TrEMBL record:
PROSITE patterns: CRAL_TRIO
Top-rank taxon: Eukaryota
Name of the protein in question: CRAL-TRIO domain-containing protein
One GO MF term attached to the UniProt entry: phosphatidylinositol transfer activity
InterPro entries membership: CRAL-TRIO_dom, CRAL-TRIO_dom_sf, CRAL/TRIO_N_dom_sf, PI_Transfer_CRAL-TRIO
UniProt domain CRAL-TRIO: residue ranges: 142-299
Length: 321
């Protein structure tokens, strides 16, 4: 009590002198995001096409003219057009073939559907300026890479700040396009890092209808893009719920989902399994503090958005009318 009163009165006491508190040094935050791969970054390339897959790619390419003919007309008032021939690469064909378990006809149908979707939904024309409100709180953004060179997509559901379902979906698509732009050559997947530590059924979150539409868009138009989904510090009831629905999840997708005990010992030293050690998958210096890393990055839209806009301008410059 004497120390408390002395502090209020601005006087020192014997107790405060004998029991000095050692303060931790203040954290110096880094506000500069990492949206582009470094030249010497280790990369796990997507496996090249097998001879059988190459034959299937050739079969799809035989239908190339048909795939690119009579696509829906785009508006030209914003000066941006979808470059369908440039989009339809052998790498992208291979992604769709693998998503269709090697069936060329299924891949052709899905590729055509995505080509039409690009012409009508126009993800290439979703600008950073139009998404600024969605990105204000840092609820979702690309930052850094895992040990395979896959971009890290951070999601913080508790930072949800808007209620427009249309804009929610557009922001998800916008972020997926940014992730693809951030991929090093030879990399076709990303790693999602989801902070579930503050998850609550009563918390403000994306509506179920939007979540369903999001999953529908991912399945149809961004197939085989998930490298790993890391769920950080999930509450016990979240894990129980997941185990109930897990049998209904596609086995391939299920194998990519793992929990991370950021402050505990579960999964320590493991790269695979229900619980993993995130530091075995992402270099600690490339991983944000709240995800269990050493990088003192702190999201600031004022710092993040200019980098995002520069990258967007560089990519879309060639798509101008």
């Amino acid at each position: 009590m004497s120390a408390f009163l002395s502090g209020l009165l601005g006087r020192k006491s014997a107790i405060t002198e004998d029991t000095a508190v050692v303060e931790k040094p203040a954290v110096v935050y880094d506000f500069i995001p990492r949206l582009e791969p470094s030249p010497n970054m280790p990369v796990e390339h997507t496996p090249e096409a097998t001879p059988e897959e190459q034959q299937a790619i050739d079969l799809v390419n035989m239908q190339r003219a048909k795939l690119l003919t009579d696509l829906p007309a785009e508006p030209t008032d914003d000066g941006l057009l979808f470059d369908a021939p440039a989009w339809l690469t052998d790498t992208r064909i291979l992604i769709y073939l693998r998503a269709c378990k090697g069936d060329p006809q299924q891949a052709i149908a899905r590729l055509r559907g995505t080509l039409e979707w690009h012409s009508t939904y126009r993800p290439h024309a979703i600008t950073p300026a139009s998404m600024r409100a969605e990105g204000a709180t840092g609820k979702m953004y690309i930052n850094g890479y895992d040990q395979g060179g896959r971009p890290l997509l951070y999601m913080f559901p508790h930072l949800e700040n808007t209620s427009d379902a249309t804009q929610h979906l557009r922001y998800i698509v916008f972020t997926m396009e940014q992730a693809i732009r951030s991929m090093p050559p030879g990399v076709t997947k990303l790693t999602i890092v989801i902070d579930a530590s503050q998850f609550s059924p009563l918390a403000r979150s994306v509506p179920l209808s939007t979540a369903r539409e999001f999953l529908n868009v991912l399945e149809k138009h961004y197939p085989d893009r998930l490298g790993k989904a890391l769920v950080l510090s999930p509450p016990a009831y979240f894990v129980v719920f997941y185990r109930i629905v897990a049998p209904f999840i596609d086995p391939v997708t299920k194998s990519k989902i793992a929990f991370v005990d950021v402050k505990g010992e579960k999964g320590k030293g493991r790269r695979d399994g229900d619980w993993v050690d995130v530091r075995e998958l992402v270099d600690p210096g490339m991983l944000q503090l709240e995800a269990g890393g050493d990088w003192t990055y702190k999201y600031s839209q004022d710092q993040y958005w200019p980098v995002l806009e520069r990258m967007y301008r560089a990519v879309t410059a060639s798509a101008k009318v």
